């Protein structure tokens, strides 16, 4: 947290939900850094975990993730979906 704060990626703010707590909030610089890092991170995860798998075990996983997304509690990823 301290290093991310020193780099201007996050800032500490009093929690609006609990006066005893402090929230870490992304700054606009942090949001930009996250957006820049996302494609490379997603490609690494795909290469490390999914590229070597046969399509058969991926089909039920894809179905399960679609059901989770259909609930509407998570944003649908942009791209091929």
From TrEMBL:
Q: What is this protein called?
A: HTH marR-type domain-containing protein
Q: Which SUPFAM superfamilies match?
A: Winged helix' DNA-binding domain (SSF46785)
User: Would you say which domain of life the source belongs to?
Assistant: Bacteria
Q: From what organism does this protein derive? A: Actinoallomurus liliacearum
């Amino acid at each position: 947290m301290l290093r991310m704060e020193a780099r201007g990626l996050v800032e500490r703010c009093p929690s609006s939900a609990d006066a005893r707590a402090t929230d870490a909030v992304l700054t606009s610089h942090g949001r930009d850094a996250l957006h820049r890092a996302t494609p490379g991170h997603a490609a690494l995860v795909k290469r490390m975990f999914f590229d070597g798998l046969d399509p058969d075990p991926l089909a039920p996983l894809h179905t399960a993730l679609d059901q989770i997304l259909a609930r509407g509690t998570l944003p649908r990823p942009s791209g091929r979906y």
